[in-house]
Specification:
By secondary structure, the protein is α+β, with helices and mostly antiparallel strands. It folds into 2 domains: 168 residues, NADH Oxidase; 56 residues, no CATH class. Helices cover 47% and strands 12% of the residues. It contains 11 helices and 4 strands, in the order H-H-E-H-E-H-H-H-E-H-E-H-H-H-H. Strands 1-2-4-3 form a 4-stranded antiparallel beta sheet, with helices on both faces. Helix 2 crosses helix 6. It is globular, with a radius of gyration of 20 Å. The structure holds flavin mononucleotide. Flavin mononucleotide binds next to strand 3. Belongs to the flavin oxidoreductase frp family. This is Oxygen-insensitive NADPH nitroreductase. InterPro entries: Flavin_OxRdtase_Frp (IPR016446), Nitroreductase (IPR029479), Nitroreductase-like (IPR000415). It holds the Pfam family Nitroreductase. Keywords: Flavoprotein, FMN, NADP, Oxidoreductase.
Length: 247
């Protein structure tokens, strides 16, 4: 197995970091790695905001309710961004561009580009023995994050990425069996009951035996709880008010 695959397969989220900040050089390498990800039609539809201001970090931490938003080696916020292209357009073509930028297709382009960049950043960080935690919890109050980071039209904060030197080494979290997620040639509605039952048992054992935050739970129960209530309903109107995903 090569070093990259080893790094990928050794991933686990880190939620406790030492006080050591990461260096400017490390920040630069991480951002360059993010930028080198493939990007739909060369659009590069994202902006990455490094948050160093303690007051802003404090408030983002309040939004998320998670201490590692504040206590980390560096905090990045990944934003889907079509604003820079919108700004480039002359006033005569702006309306034309807006018609295209407001479609679900261009919304998806921006989301995909941003996520790919973030995962490259993650791998770069992990290859330097840093730990990361994605922070979708910033969408707990997407309006407040938007205001704190002064995000204009056509820019939406998708998630944070806390990076730093790990102060913990949690057990690796199991993943779904390969036969459940991988199909050949078409989407087979195969019976995965047995596979999922085994996976639920595996995950139950993981939750019961891991070194922190032990609990009794299964993936099936977790997913039923998650999808039985609407989460962050205000994100839909926020996105549309930013002129994304309107048509
Ligand atoms: C887009 C995204 C958002 C996430 N948001 C959070 C978050 O707000 N807080 C958190 O502790 N973990 C968050 N995570 C981490 C997931 O909980 C974690 O990746 C998942 O449970 C699998 O665990 P592992 O990364 O340790 O393998 C997020 C992950 C992703 C990809």
């Amino acid at each position: 197995m090569n070093k990259l695959i080893e790094t990928i397969l050794d991933h686990r989220s880190i939620r406790k970091f030492t006080d050591q900040k990461i260096t400017e050089d490390q920040i630069k390498i991480i951002v360059q790695a993010a930028q080198q990800a493939s990007t739909s039609s060369y659009v590069m539809a994202y902006s990455i905001i490094g948050v160093t201001n303690e007051t802003i970090k404090e408030q983002l931490c309040e939004v998320s309710g998670q201490p590692y938003v504040k206590d980390n080696g560096h905090l990045f916020v990944f934003c889907a961004d079509l604003n820079r292209i919108h700004r480039l357009a002359s006033s005569e073509v702006k309306k034309l561009l807006e018609k295209s930028m407001e479609t679900t297709e261009q919304f998806m382009v921006a989301i995909i580009d941003t996520a790919l960049a973030a995962q490259n950043a993650t791998l770069a960080a992990e290859s330097m023995d840093l730990g990361v935690c994605y922070l979708g919890s910033l969408r707990n109050d997407i309006h407040r994050v938007n205001d704190l980071l002064k995000l204009p039209d056509f820019v939406i904060p998708l998630f944070g990425l806390a990076i730093g030197y790990p102060a913990e080494k949690p057990e690796k979290k199991p993943r779904l069996p390969i036969d459940v997620v991988y199909h050949e040639n078409n989407y087979e509605l195969q019976d995965v009951t047995e596979s999922l039952k085994k996976f639920d048992e595996e995950l139950k054992t993981y939750y019961q035996n891991r070194s922190h935050n032990q609990r009794s739970d299964t993936w099936t129960k977790q997913m039923m709880r998650k999808y039985s209530k609407v989460q962050r309903a205000e994100v839909s109107s926020f996105v549309k008010n930013k002129n994304f995903n309107k048509s």
